[in-house]
Design brief:
alpha+beta, 5 helices, three-stranded antiparallel beta sheet, 107 residues
């Protein structure tokens, strides 16, 4: 196997693992799901809908924004977040299907 291909794959696999690490938190998954369902929301709306503290939500939003999963847009004093990487929704759907399959005993 060509060494350049292996190195390129290793770089891709590392990036994939980093993206999964960002999403490896039930609260972050809940935030992405909420935003996918409701569209653009401000921090206070996310906190209210998920019954979470603002400091925690802000940290999660910042991390997911840095990872390129979310983007934000300022409207006056409020900052609204939305899912900008639709691929993450497909990943979450696949994970949900896998969990359901495992729960049923792998059929």
């Amino acid at each position: 196997m060509d060494v350049a291909i292996v190195e390129k794959e290793a770089e891709l696999f590392n990036k994939m693992a980093e993206l999964l690490k960002v999403m490896a938190n039930p609260n972050r998954i809940a935030i992405v799901r909420l935003l996918s369902q409701k569209g653009s929301l401000c921090v206070s709306q996310i906190c209210r809908d998920l019954n979470m503290k603002q400091a925690t939500v802000s940290i999660y939003l910042s991390r997911m924004s840095r990872a390129g999963i979310l983007k934000c847009q300022r409207q006056g004093k409020e900052v609204f977040y939305f899912v900008c990487e639709e691929g993450i929704l497909k990943i979450l759907q696949c994970l949900s299907s896998c969990v359901n399959c495992v729960d049923r005993g792998g059929d």
